[in-house]
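Dear colleagues,

As part of the handover before I leave the project, I'm documenting each prediction I ran so the next person doesn't have to rerun anything. This entry is a single chain, and its sequence is reproduced below.
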Amino acid sequence: MKWQLPHDNMETLTDNKQDIKAGKRFRLTVKSAEEAVRVIREKLGDNARVLSVRQVGGEGLKKFISSPKLEVIAEIPSEVDESVTEEETEINDSQPTKEFKPVTSESKPENHSVQSNSISSPTEGADAIISESDSFSILTKAGFDSQLLGDIKTWSNWTQIKDLSLADTLKEITVGLSDRFRSLNISPVDDRIALLGAPGVGKTTTLCKFLAHDVFMNAKTPNVLKIENGVPNPDDALKIFCEVVGVTLYRESNKIPDSSGGSPLYLDFPGLSLGQSDEWLKAKDTLDDLEIKTRVLVLNSAYDKQVLKRTIALGNNIGATHLAFSHFDELTNSTKLWPLLLRNNLSPLCICNGQNVTGDFSTNVLNQFIARTFPEELYARGFSTYRNI
């Protein structure tokens, strides 16, 4: 693999690192902390250090399908004068050809909250914090879910993880969670999809995001069937949205057209009360009568974990097959959701951020979960003390 400097006279940077000079800074855009560690180790060498870490996302229509990434500023320490500000270089590791792009001082990133003195001076602050307690104590203080920490302590490699530095702990937890996520049995998505959930979870907004994704990104022609089941289910807002994106809204099941991969049918149910199990049973009867196999349970990620557990239990009673997470951007971290995801036989389907009906929507649940598992300041602390990257 070769990287190139984007100057008029293109120079090729080979794997022997001859063009990597002390005092230079590099901006990496990567998908995960683990990927950043790998790229820095391979390309910048053992002496590289990380100055800052922040999460960045796509812009415009890319937000429909893109997942957040991490922007990492790394530096090769200068043996002469480390206070001299050298050019920064951008590495976008998601591209097939790696490029180093110099950045002027005017274009350097703003000082974000993660760029504290403990980051710019790795031997101060962050090291002191880590020396005062072990990595798992730091995670607990940062709001890491206690149940997830308990699950991690049952892992076969727990005895190795518990004695690692913070950076290595974050890496091993990331790898472990990713492996367990990939081991889940993922149910297929049929061309008839029902969205179910309690009132106020963002079910209709999630449906609109599905419709926008199908129409604008997948060039499909979806249809919507509005279900009442004896519970008022107004369609004013949904009707207007369907008209705008060219989707037909039906209120009678005997009039819906045949569904297909290019023309899926979505069923919009009224909010099902967590205190009225009979409403959920009526919904199950309707789903069975219409032979709906894909039953998506919408969870408001910001809700209390006990409420989410109760919702999942009711969803299991009516044959829910998938999970959709709404209001995901309101979480400080996603750790409380990991046990719910890994302990239930429900397939993760999508992540929704914000209440804008055309806002962020991603089917890459793993990447979204990992990106929000650890608070940014923990990434920064971990990277700043990772001396042998």
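Residues 90 and 169 are 27 Å apart (CA to CA). Residues 1-16, 60-66, 80-88, 90-133 have pLDDT under 50 and may be disordered.

All the best with the project,
I.
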